[in-house]
Amino acid sequence: MSLIVQKYGGTSVADVERIRYVARRVTACRQRGDDLVVVVSAMAGETNRLLALARDVAADPDRRESDVLVSTGEQVTTALLAMALTHGGCPALSLLGHQVRIATDSAFGKARIRSIDDGRIRAALAAGRVVVVAGFQGVDDDDNITTLGRGGSDTSAVALAAALRADSCEIYTDVDGVYTSDPRICPQARKLDRISYDEMLELASLGAKVLQIRSVEFAKRYAVPVHVRSSFTDTPGTWVVEEEASMEDILVSGVTSDRDEAKITLLRVPDQPGLAGRIFGPIADANIVVDMIIQNASAEGTTDLTFTVPKADFRQAMGLVERLAREIGAAGVRTDESVAKVSIVGLGMRSHAGVAAKMFRTLADVGINIQMIATSEIKTSVVVDAKFVELAVRVLHDAFIGGAAST
Ligand code: ADP
Ligand code: ASP
Ligand code: MG
User: What's the CA-to-centroid distance between 7 and ligand 2, angstroms?
Assistant: First the structure.
C-alpha cells in the first residue's frame, strides 16, 4: 500500500461538476488500496476575484487581511470535495492549514512553510479516511492565517508529501505534463517524460508556472518524486526526478518567458565603494527579490545601475529607490514595466560552449534587441521589450528544440 499526495489545481475544481469528477477519481484510487492526502486549490478565477474585491475597498490592501480573504477560496473547495467524497461512499475529512498546522513565517502573501505537523493527518488516514487539505495556506506563530504566494498549492502538496514521506506527489492540472515551453505561447512545444529537479527549478523560477518554484525546492531537498499530469485523462504526465545520466545529452530542455518583472534604473549613481550595498540592503530588508542587475560604468565617476524586481513589489521598491536616489545623490530614476524575460534551460549547457551566442544570434536575426543578460550553469536569460516575448519564445524553441518530434 502506498501513500500518495494528490493536488488538484483551480481548473480541476472549477465548478461542482468537476469537483464531483475529482471525487470519483480519488475514490477509484482509494479503492485500489492507497492512502490518499488530497490538496486542493480554489476554483479557477476565485483567488483573482477575491484579490479584486480587496482592491475595491483599499488601494493597497493590508497584507494580513488579504490573506484572511484569499485563503477562503481553498476553504470552499476543500469542504466541497470532502463532502462529495463522503457522500459517494469514500469517507473523507477536510483540514485547513491551521488545523493541520502547516506552520509558516509571517511574510503575508508569500509565506514560507517552516514545519508541518503530521499527527492529525496520520490519525485520519489510520481511521480509513481520505484527508483533503486546503492548499496555499498556513498559519504563523501568532495564529495568523498566511498564504504561500500565487500557485502555492503546489508547494502545500509537495511539502505535505515530504512531511508524510509519501511515495509520490501527483500534481493534477490542465496540461498533461511539463512541456518544452508554455503550450499556450508555443504550439510546437512537446511534453517531456522526465525532467531533473534542477531544470524544473530553473523553468519554474523563469516563468513556467506549471509548478510553483518552492514546490520544486521541497521536492529536490526531500527527494519527492513529482508527477505532473492531467486531471482529465489517464495518460502518464511528466516525472520530476533526480538527475539521470542521459539528461546531460539534451542541450536545451525548455524555453520560458516571464512578464512579471519590471525594470528600474538609477541614473548616474556616484561610483563609490559600498553604494550597491546601500541600495540593495533596504530592498532585501523589505523582502523584495531583485533578479537581474547590470551596472554601466561611465567616464565621469558615475554609473547607471539597472535591476529588475517582481511587478507585485514594484510600488514598494520604487518608494525605497526614490528615497535612496535622493540620499546617495543619483541623478534620477527611470522605470520600464513593459519588459519580459526570456530564458533557455538545459543540463547540457554545462558542457557545451556557444549556447548563449546562438541564443543572441537567433534573437538578432529577427530584430529583437537584448536589454539585459544573465547566465548560470544551466540557463541563459535575456530581458527584451515585452511586445517581442512570444516571437522570442517561438524562434528560440525552433532553434534549440525544433518542431513536434516525439519525446
Ligand atoms: P493549476 O491551476 O492546475 O495550478 P496553472 O495554471 O497554475 O494550473 O499551471 C498550468 C499552466 O501552466 C498550463 O495551463 C500552461 O499554460 C502553463 N505552463 C507554463 N509553462 C509550462 C510548461 N513548460 N509546461 C506546461 N505548462 C506550462
Ligand atoms: N489559489 C491560489 C492561486 O490562485 C493557489 C493555487 O492555485 O495554487 O494562486
Ligand atoms: Mg498552479
Answer: 11
Residues in the 5 Å CB sphere of ion ligand 3: 9, 151
Give the binding-site residues of ligand 1, using a 6 Å CB cut-off.
9-11, 41, 151, 173-175, 178-179, 181-182, 184, 203, 208-210, 254
Q: Which of 182, 190, 205 to mutate to test the pocket of ligand 1 (most atoms within 8 A of CB)?
A: 182
- Where among 174, 198, 213 does a domain terminate? 174
Are 277 and 328 in contact, with CB atoms under 8 Å apart?
A: no
Average pLDDT, integer, range 193-211: 95
* Number of C-beta neighbours around residue 246 at 10 A: 9
Residue 244 lies in a domain: no
pLDDT in tens, 237-253: 999 999 998 888 888 99
The residue segments making up the domain with residue 392 are 255-400
pLDDT surpassing 70 at residue 404: no
Identify whether residues 158 and 268 lie together within a single domain. Answer: no
Atom of ligand 1 nearest to the CA of 151: 7
Query: 362 C-alpha to center of ligand 3: Å?
Result: 31
In this prediction the pTM is 0.91
Sorted by sequence, the CB contacts under 8 Å of residue 378 that are 6+ apart come out as: 198, 199, 202, 345, 346, 347, 349, 350
Domain shared by 43 and 138, yes or no: yes
State the total domains in the chain. 2
Query: Within 10 A of 287 (CB to CB), how many other CB atoms are there?
Result: 12
134 has which bridge partners?
Answer: 40
CATH number of the domain encompassing residue 287: 3.30.2130.10
